[in-house]
Amino acid sequence: KAGVTQTPRYLIKTRGQQVTLSCSPISGHRSVSWYQQTPGQGLQFLFEYFSETQRNKGNFPGRFSGRQFSNSRSEMNVSTLELGDSALYLCASSLGTLTTNEKLFFGSGTQLSVL
Amino acid sequence: AQSVTQLDSHVSVSEGTPVLLRCNYSSSYSPSLFWYVQHPNKGLQLLLKYTSAATLVKGINGFEAEFKKSETSFHLTKPSAHMSDAAEYFCVVQSPGGKLIFGQGTELSVKP
Predict the structure, then answer these.
(1) CA atoms within 13 A on the CB side of A47
(2) Alpha carbon of A81: minimum distance to chain B alpha carbons (Å)
(3) Cα four-point dihedral sign B51, B57, B58, B64
(4) Cβ within 8 Å of residue B40, ≥6 positions away
(5) Which residues of chain A make contact with B5, given a CB cutoff of 8 A?
């Protein structure tokens, strides 16, 4: 069974641009959640999608958005990039929603650098 | 509000000696608690979880953790460290709504 796949693996953008990151969950998983990891702030929850609906959102500005498609693949978009958005972005998938405490399977992440 | 504090940013042990990674939590509710491990350039992997069943939780790779409500702690232990255990470890508390709140991480070094 293929694991969680995140593309691209690395990305370099400049301030003011926008970026879209992709996450393909494990087959059959319907929940996808996103996380930002930085040396200063550590790991922070961004949002969760289940059956194409956003169920949970962390404390991030509206520049951070996401969506989920009918095949459970998810995309995360960041508009008007700032230097502080440089981070490793991780996604995770699970069968049920986060509230079911099911095991999360993480991808290897997308390393975003904003210059 | 819920929070989690990992008491050590870095722990160094010798191979074959015990491992102790400390985690304290704060929660208004009966919490769900997790330990995740992250190897370099990899995503996170679940080691174990506590969801109000047995207070001593056994995980993968010989790790276990004990939930102590009176001390609001959920420390991770392993009797004998292996070189492959070198990684960063995250203690995580989950809110009733499902949001995950991560500790700052503890980097474990294992010396030969």
Answers:
(1) 21
(2) 23
(3) positive
(4) B87
(5) none
- Spatial strand order of the sheet with A5-7 comes to A5-7, A19-24, A74-78, A64-68
- Which residues is B78 bridged to in the sheet? B19
Question: Mean pLDDT over residues A96-106, rounded?
Answer: 84
- The C-alpha of B42 sits at a distance from chain A's nearest C-alpha, in angstroms, of 5
d(CA B109, CA B112): 10
Q: How do residues A55-78 score in pLDDT, each as one tens digit? A: 989 999 999 999 999 999 999 999
**Chain segment B69-110, per-residue pLDDT in tens:** 999 999 999 999 999 999 999 999 988 788 889 999 999 999
Q: Which residue of B has its CA nearest to A57?
A: B99
Rounded CA gap, B62 and B66, in Å? 14
> Tokens 């993480």 — which residue?
A106
Closest residue of B to A58, CA-based?
A: B99
The CA distance from B29 to A50, in Å, is: 24
C-alpha distance from B29 to closest chain A C-alpha (Å): 14
Per-residue model confidence as pLDDT tens digits over B15-74 = 999 999 999 999 877 788 999 999 987 889 999 999 877 889 999 999 999 999 999 999
Specify the residue for token string 């959920």.
Answer: B74
